[in-house]
């Protein structure tokens, strides 16, 4: 692309730039590479380089810390993401950038959820929701409801998940992943007919990325094991390929439940190895024992 051509040219002539200019240049490259989850590791390197070249009281430094929140989150480093949330808010306040603080607040809640600190996340989200109609703090209620639904789903409060998912939809949240929150909640509550009805009436409108998961749930509900395994492995592969780390623990446990119920001890061991790899931050598509086994 043109940007990469410019990058190569400028990298050969960095001696023509001052430190603060190089810092801005690296920060912009970080933003460019951050657009694609697959190149987040390159974005991380540029943001860190940028911060080494600028003053810690500068706006560029502050914005780099802000960008690092989502970079670390997408690299499956929730503790580092949370640390950047805290430091970013302090820096943004110094520069009176309150619109960014709103975004950081939401990131902080998501990070708390991903760390398994569900009560802390819910408490903060409800506090934000109570401020949502404040013109000074322009929080988007659809996103708040979405995050409350996700937090409820992971904390196994399925009635709450259904309630907040419906509120997110009513408030026109555009997120595609909402399509599986309600049927998954029904499935976990053993309300299989409701699960099937919901999937049948919503499948054609769902994003293609999530259709294999919906089809896997439908197959599991109907004890169609071959279809379940085909679709859940396809979805698991997509999560790993696209580094959608947030969803991986949910799906791993869904798969583990299946192999436990079907008493397939070999596959139970393999998904448990994947779970350990995920917790150790080592899991990739290439290293996944479950995926490689399913393709053999």
Protein described:
This protein has 296 residues and is mainly α. It is globular. It has 16 helices and no strands. It is 72% helix and 0% strand. It has three domains: 96 residues; 59 residues, no CATH class; 119 residues, no CATH class. The two termini are 37 Å apart.
Short description:
This protein is mostly helical and 296 residues long. The chain folds into 3 domains: 96 residues; 59 residues, no CATH class; 119 residues, no CATH class. It is built from 16 helices and no strands.
Order of helices and strands: HHHHHHHHHHHHHHHH
Give the biggest sheet: none
Total beta-strand segments:
0
Taking the alpha carbons of the first and last residues, their distance comes to 37 Å
| Class computed from helices, strands and strand pairing | mainly alpha
Whole-number total of structural domains: 3
What integer is the average pLDDT? 90
* % residues in beta strands: under 5%
Low-confidence stretches: none
Gross morphology is globular
Instruction: Specify the number of helices.
Output: 16
Rg over CA atoms: 21 Å
Helix content: over 70%
InterPro entries: TPR-like_helical_dom_sf (IPR011990)
Organism: Holdemanella biformis
Protein name: XRE family transcriptional regulator
Keywords:
296 residues; mainly alpha; single chain; 3 domains
Layout of helices and strands:
Blueprint: H1 2-11, H2 19-34, H3 40-53, H4 59-74, H5 78-94, H6 98-114, H7 118-130, H8 141-154, H9 158-170, H10 181-188, H11 192-202, H12 211-221, H13 225-241, H14 248-261, H15 265-279, H16 289-295
């Amino acid at each position: 692309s043109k940007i990469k051509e410019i990058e190569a040219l400028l990298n050969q002539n960095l001696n023509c730039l001052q430190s603060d200019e190089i810092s801005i240049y690296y920060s912009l490259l970080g933003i460019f590479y951050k657009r694609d989850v697959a190149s987040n590791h390159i974005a991380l390197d540029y943001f860190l380089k940028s911060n080494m070249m600028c003053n810690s009281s500068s706006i560029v430094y502050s914005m780099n810390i802000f960008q690092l929140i989502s970079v670390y989150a997408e690299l499956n480093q929730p503790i580092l993401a949370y640390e950047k949330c805290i430091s970013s808010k302090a820096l943004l306040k110094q520069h009176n950038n309150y619109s960014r603080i709103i975004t950081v607040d939401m990131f902080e809640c998501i990070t708390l959820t991903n760390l398994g600190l569900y009560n802390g996340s819910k408490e903060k989200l409800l506090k934000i929701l109570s401020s949502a109609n404040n013109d000074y703090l322009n929080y988007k209620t659809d996103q708040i409801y979405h995050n409350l639904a996700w937090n409820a789903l992971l904390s196994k409060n399925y009635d709450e998940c259904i309630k907040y998912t419906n509120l997110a939809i009513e408030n026109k949240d555009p997120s595609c992943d909402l399509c599986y929150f309600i049927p998954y909640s029904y499935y976990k509550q053993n309300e299989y007919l409701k699960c099937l009805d919901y999937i049948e009436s919503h499948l054609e409108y769902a994003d293609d990325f999530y259709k294999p998961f919906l089809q896997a749930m439908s197959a599991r509900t109907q004890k169609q094991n071959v279809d379940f395994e085909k679709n859940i492995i396809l979805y698991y592969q997509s999560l790993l390929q696209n580094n959608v780390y947030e969803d991986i623990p949910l799906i791993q446990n869904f798969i583990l439940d299946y192999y436990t119920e079907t008493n397939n001890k070999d596959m139970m061991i393999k998904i448990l190895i994947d779970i350990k790899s995920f917790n150790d931050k080592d899991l990739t598509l290439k290293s996944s024992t479950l995926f490689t086994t399913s393709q053999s």
